[in-house]
Write a structure and sequence with these properties.
With 96 residues, this protein is of the alpha+beta class. It contains three helices and four strands, in the order ββββααα. It is elongated. InterPro entries: SAV0927-like.
């Protein structure tokens, strides 16, 4: 193995929820939502269609334009996704 300078290398058990849904505006989402002990309680959310992934908590959902930029969505699509994710991300727990 090359001479890498590792900052971190850990393994942990995670939970992954796979969700597929179609919004009222007929936009389909295929998501993988990973719950882990890392990222201060935020979720790791992957759009399986585009391969785009984000570490997400309520503060990110509240940030204007975040979903549009991260997942390359228009405002309407982002509003539909935000409505679903409000039930998923929950509150952030700051633990060490």
């Amino acid at each position: 193995m090359p001479d890498y300078d590792f900052m971190s290398d850990t393994t942990e058990q995670t939970t992954t929820r796979f969700v597929t849904f179609i919004t009222p505006n007929l936009k389909r989402f295929d998501l993988a939502i990973m719950t882990t002990n890392r990222f201060y309680g935020k979720k790791l959310i992957t759009d399986l269609q585009s391969g785009r992934t984000a570490i997400m908590g309520q503060d990110d959902l509240d940030q204007e334009g975040y979903l549009e930029f991260t997942y390359k969505l228009n405002e309407e699509e982002a509003a539909d996704l935000r409505q679903f994710l409000e039930f998923v991300v929950g509150t952030v727990n700051f633990t060490d």
